[in-house]
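Continuing the batch. This is chain 6 of the set; chains 1 through 5 are on the previous pages. Same settings as before, nothing changed between runs. Recording input and output for traceability.
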Amino acid sequence: MSDSGMPHLFRLLGAFVAVAVGIGLVGAGLVIPLAGATGGAAQSTAEGFNNLDDEFTATALAQQSKIYSSDGKLLATPYDANRIVVPLSKISKTMQQAQIAIEDSRFYEHGGIDVRGTTRALVSNVSSGQTQGGSSITQQYVKLMLQEKAVREDDQEAAQAAVEQTYSRKLQELKYALNVEKTHTKDQILSGYLNLALYGDQAYGVEAAAKHFFSKHASELNLSESATLAGVVQSPSRLNPRTNPEEVQERRDLVINRMQSLGMVTPAQADAAKAKSVKSTLKIKENEGGTCSKAVDPYFCNYVIQYLRQMPELGPDPDARMQAINTGGFTIKTTLRRSWQKNLKQELTERVPAGTERFGSAAAMIEPGTGKVRAIAQTSTYKVGLKKASTRYSEQAWSVPAQYGGTNGFAIGSTAKMFALVAALEKGKPMESTINTPDGTQATFMPKQFNSKCTTNSPWVVANAEKAVGGPMTMRQATKMSVNTSFAQLASDIGSCRIPKVMAKMGLTDGYGLPYGLNYNGGVKTKDDYAVSNLVLGSDSSTPLQLASSYATLAADGKYCPPNPIESITTANGTKMKIKPPACKQVMDKDIARGVTDLLTETMTPGGTANAMVLDNGRQAAAKTGTTDNKQSWFAGFTKQLSTAVWVGSPIREYEMTGVNIGGQFYPKVYGGTIAGPIWKEVMDEASEGMAKKRFTKPSKEVINGDMRSIPDVTGMGPTQAKEKLEKAGFKATEGSQVNSTAQAGAIAYTQPTGQALKGTTVTMYISNGVPPYTPPPAPTTTQAPAPTTTQAPAPSTTRSSSSTSRPSSSTTRSTTTSRPSATRSTPRQTGTRPNGNGNGGNTND
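Output for chain 6:
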């Protein structure tokens, strides 16, 4: 009771008598030894009671949500209150009886207020000066529900008022109890109480308590276990089976004795139930949920929670959505394949153990065409409250971007070259076209060779990992061997600012959500100002999830689907929530995606940088390696059904992976194909087992060889008319110099090239000056004298070389030096330096 002491007890007793008389609850023979509680006082109190609000509205109980993998494995149980609501039919009869026996033995007899019990408690309180409970189960249900409602509405004042031992609160509780008895059945009231009550250790409701303390359902509780739980409700903080089993046992035995006296159990049953100690019956279940630190996979759990916080279907703002997750009792089915997740984690940690001082690894697996996140994992152990993260312990996920509890990611190296290939094919450059790669192992590119907003501040020296590479080579060859200078030249040829546009539409940003490749100015990224080294050689950072998603776009024939970890959400009452998955979008022509995919299959052929990662059983795949200054390494690749990106590097502070021992193995240098590649192959083989072996669709001849078109014959036409005809055919036209020709002066003498050329090719029109080309006269005929009658040696014959006017050739022919790929090697090599953030870095590749 309150601090007002004895006077308050007298007032409350008087009020109760008055109320009882007024509403006809006091039966014949009931005597209350208290004078002065009748007459005017009683009448006044009864009137006050009748004027109290009697409208009682129950609220939905807060209960734990459950997060499952796509294959039905429980991953996590986020909650504010560890509660699992079950119907009365799912609670054992002994549990129901035990609770009634110790709390309200006449529950099924009274009308909401146990007059006899309440009177006895009041008299005892008055006479002894002690506080004794007398509330019925109905009254307790009302009190708990009022408290629950206040907590759900974040009304701290109301929550406190719901449990205060005050005169007005008690009267209101009595009035509500009477109302509940009129609107609810006894079983409904008992069910509500058993689902509301706190049974200790933050276990609300008997189902959560049974699972927590005994690792079983409430329907399976035996007599001893039921009596244990029923007894702790009186004081769940003190009577905690985990921390105070001896006192809990005394209380349990009291409950059993009470049940025996009420005829609920026999003496033999009671003795058997009391024979075992409470401590010996406990089977406490750890790591049930509540926070992601207790989840099966904390990093994925945290990613899902952060993703749910951004779903408008769950509430108007992140806080409201979080409350819905923690209290709504949702069943959340994710896209995760638990078996793939476990295998991915195992492969990562076997090759890059979590205890490695400097290095770590992470990966993500995406389903092309849907964006479903099938697995994410990393080598560190999840731990909250860290003052300083390490390779061993981290709260942040290395595989997802910052908005989902991750990081800014890591420099992606030559995996960025894929985006340059897309940009080149979209511009119309054929797959088999030649890149005029500068000769030599390295080359210097000047700022003016690139678009002004996607360039470098000073001469950019680009080096190749391969020795003796350079000179003209096809895009297929440049991709196969990942030649840096070829891709730098390609960016110059197609316009470097095409690349960030491709990256954006394929979902690649840095880990903070900013456009990939932006330049730094004073430590801050500058809007619309890109460093060409970032765009071509991947010197900027991103995460495995984002890179796997971008590569999945190619596997899906140019359809980009944002990563999505949610399959479905079902409410506590079994209704499937209508959720709108992120929309997929066709971001490039299917033929372009197929062309780039075909180029990336070359890396897995002999001589390619990924040649050792061919998947089992002839399963077709396309991939790209990437390395940044031997500090970060990548392998990104895909089949028609799966796209996976694996990163191995230094996550906290950058260290060179040169001459290092990782996972018990010595590596002179670590590249994309050294550790990340084998991890990729193992997890892709494992995940693909049993899947159909689908092959990539071949690109069209137009993408392979370009849009070859016939050049119209415009000889004899005027320049204006000729230009119109050439442009209509898909070419650009420009006037060349005047030449000798039989054509009328000012007309077109000929074009260069002639015959066929790629659409968009510039055709030069040479103009006639009206002077016919010089034709030399025929050689004179030589008449010889008759042969002498005497025998002579034959006169030597005279051979004259004929002269002709050579007209410029109708097409230019250029010799192409094909650089043969080096012998097959399992570990590609790479040299270079890290960019300094001003767009001048960078010889990143493998």
